[in-house]
Amino acid sequence: MNNRSSQTISMLIWRSVGQAVTLAVLAGFVLPFSYGLVHHYQEKQQHIQQLASLLTTSASTADGADIVADQVNVLLENEPTIQSIVFYSTSKPISDVNQSLDDWRNALFADTVSFNYPVVSKYEDDNEAGADNAASDRQIASTLSESMANAPSTSQLTDDSAKNSALIGYINITMDVKLLRLHWFQSVLWLWLTTVVLIVIFALYIFRKLNWPVKDIEALTDICQTITKNSELEQLPIIPQRFNFQELTQIKKALVILFGRLQEAKIGYETLAAFEQQLHNKDVSLDVQLHNFQSMITHELKTSLNAIVGGLQLLDYESLTREQKDAVEIISDGSDKLVLSLDHIIQLNQIQKGQIRIHTNEFNPLQLISDLLVKFEPITSQKGLELISNIHHIDYSLHGDSAKIQQILSILLNNAIKFTPTGQVTISSQLTHFDKSNRWKISVKDTGIGIDSDHIEDIFNPFFQVDSSQTRQYEGSGIGLPVVKQIAQLMGATIEVDSTLGSGTEFTLTVAMPNQQQSRQQRLLSGLTIVYYYYQEAGALLSELEYLGATIICHQCPQQVINEVRTQKVDMVMFAEDVFVEKAELLAKSIRQYESEEGTQRTLLVYWYPPHRARYVDSFEYGLKAAGIDYCHRSNYKDKALSDLLKRWLVWT
User: Up-side HSE of residue 47: CA atoms within 13 Å toward CB?
Assistant: First the structure.
């Protein structure tokens, strides 16, 4: 992971160019001027070598003493870098250690450098000549010594080349390298200053050229910051660009295109939101009309059927003829079926309106199954079927809504008998005990015609018929199984189907119920009125709230939720975890608007979201709270923890 601090492109450009210029200046000064100094040192060394050759030539002649003296005086006066010239009279070669030093080190770091040059006699080597030679050598040595009386002496240096027997001595020339460097720097000072000025001018020119794209980049950055900070920006500001750099032009073009697409998407989103609001309003209106129509039609049909049933009961059955009795039985049987279908439709309508409550009581599951067997055994015997019960538990008391469980099992048994021409119908019961709850699993299995796997998901839809033709073999309105599904969800139970076409069907109802200790602690939310709004499924949280003793009013229609808030005192309005965020926002705004207009007490609004959406809570929580919802929380609280949480929210509100 890169932990470097962020920086701008302009800062990077200036820093990089500055480092490059600094490196170029150092390389341009150090290397050329160091080489120039060494070269100057080598030239001066060659010049001294030429002067030394002249001195040794003069000193090797017979009358060269005066010439050498004059030459030495002239050299010392005209060559300030020559510190001293000394003659050593010796016939033995001496070692010269300085001659092997490196020119670079001498030129850059040495203070003085000495050079030894041999003086050789040009006379023949005989006795007379040798005597004259010795006299001449002594005269040269004396003359050089007098002329160099004030010059400082130096250490002896060697010249390996002095191997001639006619060697009479060495001339030592010492060069002041420190003074040589000073003179050389003074001579090139103007060149240095000129070079520095040119480099500075060139660097400023480079900086000026680089400043062109930097200004355009900074202008583009300002536009991006403006767009980022202003979410309501409807028109892209003008992007200034002084120079037509291709890369920046492409970035500008891409930014304009993306902003245009964003505006198009925004317009499309607003149009879609408006259309969704229209659909929502139509859905609300249709839901209200549907519920009103269902209430009206069921009421009118129920009234008419009650009149028919009452009229049939008033008939004197004994005074009727056989044909009349058969007709009355047909009418009575048809009216009973129609009354049952209407009861199912009314109950389904009441469940959708939240008018059905769960009433918990203590009951014996064995007694409940026994009552069902007594009720349906005559019907199965009449049809030639065998009714079997398989009980896998002992006698035990449970706490739940026994009436609704019995209704579910009655519908399942009735369907099993109706769709089983031959064979048997089996009801099985299995009870599992846990630490805090009991699970009752009841299954109804038949050997009937079965259900095609393509229709398994559709059988719980109201008025669905696998065979919808006019000549279908089996009667029914298709309302029984939807009632089973809705009641099971209302209790927090599950209903499962396993069917094979031509072999039979098995429906399994699984109900979770509290144990005896929990049933005594069930009234933790007693006296609390909660309106529970859900989209398709009420979820397990509803049964948990009912188990804690709260008064729950369930609705799937937003307008009905608003009506509940208007007509009675509601402590909380809860949005189930399957409610879309947009629908929750619209309903919350409507409730808060009503409270503001009427000045009524503020109702606590709570939005429950499933645990798997916890990582995305930041994406929708702000919008919900802005719409008026007080709390957004995961729907995973149970028992006393849930009651404590709700009571704490009520205190805070």
Answer: 12
The Cβ-side half-sphere exposure at 203, using a 13 Å CA radius, reads 18
Distance between CA atoms of 47 and 29, rounded to whole angstroms?
27
Q: Which two tokens stand for residue 270?
A: 């607003």
* DSSP string covering 365-424: HHHHHHHHHHHHHHHHHHHT-EEEEEE-S----EEE-HHHHHHHHHHHHHHHHHT-SSSE
pLDDT at 169 over 90: no
Helix (H) or strand (E) run with residue 573 in it: strand 572-575
Tokens 């203070």 map to which residue? 111
How is the chain split among helix, strand and coil, in percent rounded to 5? Answer: 60, 15, 25
Integer CA distances (angstroms), 398 to 102, 243, 330, 511, in order: 110, 85, 41, 11
DSSP summary character for residue 454? G
User: Whose structure tokens read 């149009």?
Assistant: 271
Measured CA to CA in angstroms, residue 387 lies from 28, 79, 484, 560 at distances of 109, 138, 21, 44
How many secondary structure helices (H) and strands (E) does the chain include? Answer: 16, 15
Q: To the nearest 10°, the Cα dihedral for 154, 159, 164, 168?
A: -10
Cα–Cα nearest to 400, from 408, 388, 389, 392 = 408
Within 10 angstroms of residue 639's Cβ, the number of other Cβ atoms is 16
For 95, which DSSP code? B
Tell me: the pLDDT tens digits for 371-389?
999 999 998 998 899 999 9
Rounded mean pLDDT, 219-236: 77
By CB neighbour count within 10 A (0-12 exposed, 13-18 middle, 19+ buried), where does 95 fall? Answer: exposed
Is residue 82 a contact partner of residue 174, using CB atoms and an 8 Å limit? yes
Select from 52, 51, 174 the least CA-distant residue to 112.
174
- Rounded mean pLDDT, 380-404: 87
Q: Is 373 exposed, middle or buried (0-12, 13-18, 19+ CB in 10 A)?
A: middle
The Cα–Cα gap between 474 and 416 comes to: 12
Strand partners, 529: 551
What is the arithmetic mean of pLDDT over 247-266? 81
Considering the entire predicted model, what is its pTM? 0.41
Name every residue whose Cβ is closer than 8 Å to that of residue 362 and which is 6 or more positions away in sequence. Answer: 397, 398, 399, 519
